[in-house]
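Lab notebook: predicted structure, single chain.

Context: the supervisor wants predicted structures on file for every construct in the current expression panel, including those that have not yet been purified. This is the next one on the list. No modifications to the sequence; it matches the entry in the shared construct table.
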Amino acid sequence: MNMNAGKRVVVTGATGNVGTSVVAALADDPQISSVLGLARRLPGWSPPKTEWAEVDLQEETDLVRHFEGADAVVHLAWAFQPTHDPVATWRTNVLGSLQVYRDVSAAGVPALVHASSVGAYSPGPKDGAVDESWPTHGWPGAAYCREKAYLERVLDAFEARNPGVRVVRMRPAFLFKEESGSEQRRIFAGRFMPGQLAGPKTIPVVPDIPGLRFQALHTDDAARAYRLAVTKDVSGAFNLAAEPALDARQLADLLDARVVRLPRPAIRAALAAGWGLRLIPASPQLFDAVLRLPILDCARARDELGWRPERTSLEALEEMLRGMRSGAGMDTAPLAGRKVS
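Prediction complete. Output recorded below exactly as produced.
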């Protein structure tokens, strides 16, 4: 193969839920000649056309050597934990991203595809949908949202200083796939929750809380959008989500559970107690943010990227729950499960 015939792409955070799907999608595209995956720990997984480099964004001071000659950098690296130490996540997520942006510019990379999130958006409607013009100030109480929103402002300044760089901001809803089940159990529910509980008839009730309506998307569908953002001459922000928006009734049907109306303060107090005792890693502030996230209008991704999800939000969530129950994973450190699939 002539390695100069296609695009060379560098992917940060290449071994996680999103990274593995993005690397696989890029490796499968004939327009891509090579992929360099950057990760804190090198994986056993080895897709075609892909090489690996060990990079820790908390420690790395020079990414130029990895970025030189690249046609695009896809920046996915993100640390969700430790939620009790927002300085640590800020160091990785924000300061690490600043290093990525600086070195994209220094290496002369013509395109930067950044993983933003629905969490970057300011609180919005649950009975309508917002497009990419909705304000991106996040929910200030949650570190995840603060960091995603801050980076949106940084990218505003980056684009003004680097008009020759094509910048794409992906703003997906919650991303699920079977192989991420074990990872997402550890991130959000904690190691003490058995994965077998994530199944029908094992959770008796689903709380009906005001504001509990959100969107999901299969990670592989999101990866197709990232691939299109690399190969098409587009820029700006793109919302990514599948239908339908999920609420307590749909979650209860999926889990064969009953819906019970519960007050928000009672649920939050229970989560705060579990988080304070370090029994669960997801913070009560993230719970506050989820109840305020807007519903996304994805027309721009459909019209300009030619992108549509192939799976529904229910299918994506059901697959992830199946992965939780089975201990599914991949041969990468973030996705390690009870078994490797």
